[in-house]
Amino acid sequence: YWSGLYKMAGIYLEKYFLSFTSDPREKADSFLRLGTLMDGKGDYTKAAEHYTRAIEFAAELDTNRRYFMNNNLGYCLVQLGRFEEAEPYCRAAISIAPNLHNAYKNLGLVCSGIGRVEDGAENFLRAARLYPEDVRAAKHLRELAKKHPKELGPISEEVRSFLDRWPLEERSAPTLKSIGRHLVFLQMGADDVERRGNKALIR
Q: What single DSSP character describes residue 153?
């Protein structure tokens, strides 16, 4: 992996994980780890495959892992331009953990990508309000409002008011660290994720 041969490493790890255990929960966890490996390297196609396999085994996993699987799969499909496929996973993540912000942000990307501007703006607003320290949703909202000012519908004034009070250029604090972020949440208990989970989210 460290030599850059991450695809070969992923193939090896997949075979190792599948032969190592027959426990569905451990398989789901393993595919989630493989998904984050490929995701971190920008191989969204392979990451989506691993996240999909993880979800297949995820029925008995805790809420946090199921949230990450659906959220991250939705994000990868968005990056691949497969917006319609991404939407149900974003919504699944929201139904699992409605207090976490990333799935709303990703659903905003889905809606924006398929031309549902007002829905996109609503989800960006929700994400930005849930966790203001992660400025990505607010930036997406600003770009969407700038590009489609007449398509925001009834929430146009709410969007403008929010952006007027949101000095993005002054919010320079880092949001998500790339190094070691993939597996942070796997080491956190449910209560800790509930309290700090927004910072542990990867997508």
A: G
Q: Where are the alpha helices (DSSP H) in 80-130?
A: 83-96, 102-113, 117-130
Q: What tokens does 197 get?
A: 């989970």
**Least confident range of 19-28, 64-73, 141-150:** 19-28
The pLDDT assigned to 159 comes to 92
Q: Map residue 142 onto helix, strand or coil.
A: helix
Name the residue among 75, 76, 61 with its Cα closest to residue 30. 61
Round to whole Å and give the CA distance between 70 and 82: 15
From CA 152, how far away is CA 166, in angstroms rounded?
18
- Residue-wise pLDDT tens digits, 33-79: 888 888 888 899 999 999 999 998 877 667 888 899 999 999 999 99
Q: What 3-state class would DSSP assign to 195?
A: helix
- By three-state DSSP, how is residue 2 classified? coil
Give the number of C-alpha atoms closer than 13 A to the C-alpha of residue 198, restricted to the C-beta side: 18
- State how far the Cα of 120 lies from the Cα of 110, in Å rounded to an integer: 7
Model pTM score: 0.77
In contact, 129 and 108? CB cutoff 8 Å: no
For helices 24-40 and 63-79, the axis angle rounded to 10 degrees is: 40
Q: Decide if 83 contacts 113 (C-beta within 8 A).
A: yes
Residue 76 dihedral angles phi and psi, to the nearest 5°: -60, -40
